[in-house]
Design brief:
Oligomer: heterodimer
Shape of chain B: globular
Largest interface: A-B, 45 and 54 residues
CATH architecture of the largest domain in chain B: 3-Layer(aba) Sandwich
Number of strands of chain A: 2
Radius of gyration of chain B: 19 Å
Helix content of chain B: 25-40%
Helix content of chain A: 55-70%
Number of helices of chain A: 13
Strand content of chain B: 15-25%
CATH topology of the largest domain in chain B: Rossmann fold
Largest sheet of chain B: 6 strands, mixed
Strand order of the largest sheet of chain A: 1-2
């Protein structure tokens, strides 16, 4: 085990960072907000933490906290700015936001280290910090999928007008999605800088957006479980594909495309659909009647008082 | 439950000189209505007469051009769409709107989630928001709409008429004071229509004020206490349903010759 751990430390670290990154995209997606701002927040977290630790010698956890707050505020402002956008336009606006963060990093002069980035970000972040923060993120996101809050997020995604009619402030939920996404993305970015002791613009570019999106598409956007699944797969897949040599990018691409086309709900979607079918097959039809959709007319009056109408 | 008698003259909803214009189109124009507590009101009118726009204005989804809406005597047209549930106004939609991936129980619970004075209020903030219990209001709404046994079904597994009943159950779980029903019996068979009519009258007898938009004139005559006939965005006749449907102006605008033969 410890041999495995030592040999794969970088991948193990990346897994927990990847989980937080994937959650930062899954949270808004689940609320029906097509936002990829999580990647930009990752950049904010990565740079703010690195700068704080490097220039002030601040303790790592404090730097992560401050970066998180900065990203949440930026997420809120971004959410307000794009409040009236939806679908593809919102997606484009948030991709632009991510690219703006990259441009700022490249042109930040001494503060961000320009194209070469920052080096020597020494910190005391251990694997236990990674596990702890990833678990915290998972538990927090899992809570938003439960009970009243879970139902309300479903309603905001599936039917905003219906959501409003049952007293849900769609605007507030959408803004919350931006803020939570900002926090999760930022923590992921902070951990990346602090664990790797370096950050450069190439770490937060367009490829990061693609990676996060890939994790969600293949894993599934409906649940935190999909995000975790996707993060694990796409952290471990590239090294496993190394055996394909020059073809590894082709194989990677085929896997992603296949998932996108044939498994729209992601791997988690397959699992939850199967579970639903199983319970559906098991349960009895109400009051001994045939399922409603199998009856042409006159459905489901359990005590059958047909004389009441007319 | 005899609240209807005691407060029969108290308006729950009052609409004064309402106008909703879309550019040059006067979807609703100079429309006034008054809904007293504990009665069933109906709106009839041909397609494009402004019925849906009116419901949109009352549910605050459509902005008013001018006029006033008062709920319980208080100005209502400044209230945001997401706050009408807190005022205990519930609605159903012209086309069924249910969450596709959750059970009937959870769909109805969505209405109970909005209700105030629910037992959930006494639970802690944590349990209220993240608990997976079902409110008592849901069980009673399921019983009233005869959805017993369907709790674990998803909408797509049920007939259109049954889905409509889930919508009504969701609205009831909100514990409404005013219930707005947009074509509640569309897609239902004759027996189901009769059941819905009976249910609405039961609710009326318990004091619930209802506003019904419906194409089925027979259903309106059987169910409503008072009917408004709309055409070209305004009320052209109102009164007892039997009288309104016989009004020559209404027949010309909406019912045509067909009703005379019926």
């Amino acid at each position: 085990m410890s041999d495995f751990y030592a040999a794969n430390l970088v991948l193990i670290q990346s897994t927990f960072i990847g989980i937080l990154l994937a959650l930062s995209v899954q949270v808004p997606m689940r609320a029906g907000v097509f936002s990829f701002a999580g990647a930009g927040s990752y950049g904010i977290g990565a740079y703010v933490s690195a700068i704080l630790v490097l220039k002030t010698g601040m303790p790592s956890l404090l730097a992560i906290l401050i970066s998180g707050i900065v990203a949440m505020v930026v997420g809120l402002l971004l959410g307000l700015l794009v409040a009236h956008l939806g679908g593809l336009y919102l997606a484009m606006a948030t991709v632009s936001f991510d690219l703006i963060v990259s441009v700022l990093a490249i042109n930040g002069g001494d503060l961000t280290g320009g194209v070469t980035g920052l080096f020597g970000v020494l910190s005391d972040v251990t694997i236990f910090h990674l596990i702890g923060l990833a678990l915290l993120g998972i538990v927090g996101v899992a809570l938003t999928e439960r009970g009243r809050v879970g139902r309300r997020v479903d309603a905001v995604r599936d039917d905003p007008e219906l959501a409003q009619s049952v007293g849900i402030s769609v605007r507030r939920y959408r803004l919350a999605a931006f803020v939570v996404s900002g926090l999760l993305g930022s923590v992921a970015g902070s951990l990346n800088s602090l664990v790797r002791s370096t950050i450069s613009p190439s770490d937060i570019g367009f490829s990061l957006i693609v990676l996060a999106l890939t994790m969600i598409i293949v894993g599934g956007a409906q649940s935190w479980k999909g995000a975790v699944l996707g993060a694990v797969i796409f952290t471990w897949l590239p090294p496993l594909l190394a055996g394909f040599g020059q073809l590894q990018h082709v194989v990677y691409g085929v896997i992603v495309a296949t998932a996108a086309i044939f498994v729209p709900g992601g791997l988690y979607g397959i699992y939850s659909e199967a579970r639903y079918r199983r319970t559906r097959a098991k349960r009895k039809t109400p009051q001994g009647e045939a399922p409603a959709h199998e009856q042409a007319l006159a459905i489901s009056v359990p005590n059958g008082d047909a004389g009441r109408s007319a | 439950m005899s609240a209807a008698d005691a407060t029969a003259t108290r308006p729950v909803l009052e609409i004064r000189d309402l106008a909703v214009h879309f550019g040059g189109v006067k979807a609703v124009d100079r429309l006034s209505m008054r809904l007293d507590e504990g009665r069933i009101y109906g709106i009839i009118g041909p397609n494009g007469s402004g019925k849906s726009t009116l419901l949109g204005a009352v549910t605050r989804l459509t902005p008013l051009t001018s006029g006033e809406i008062l709920f319980d005597g208080e100005p209502f047209h400044t209230v945001h769409a997401s706050q009408i549930a807190a005022k205990r106004i519930a609605r159903t939609f012209q086309t069924v709107r249910l969450l596709p991936d959750v059970s009937v129980r959870d769909n109805i619970q969505l209405g109970a989630d909005a209700a105030r004075g629910d037992v959930d209020e006494r639970r802690g903030w944590w349990a209220r928001n993240f608990g997976t219990h079902t409110s008592p209001a849901v069980a009673s709404a399921i019983a009233r709409t005869r959805l017993g046994g369907f709790e674990d079904y998803r909408p797509a597994e049920m007939s259109y008429g049954t889905q409509r009943r889930v919508e009504i159950a969701r609205a009831l779980a909100l514990d409404p004071r005013l219930l707005l029903l947009d074509e509640p019996t569309a897609g239902m068979n004759q027996r189901e229509r009769g059941e819905i009519s009976t249910l609405l009258k039961e609710l009326r007898d318990e004091g619930l004020t209802q506003l019904l938009v419906e194409h089925d004139v027979q259903m309106m005559v059987d169910t409503c206490d008072y009917v408004f006939a709309m055409n070209l965005g305004t009320v052209i006749a109102q009164g007892r349903p039997e009288d309104v449907v016989r009004d020559p102006q209404v027949q010309e605008a909406y019912l045509g010759k067909k009703f005379r033969h019926a």
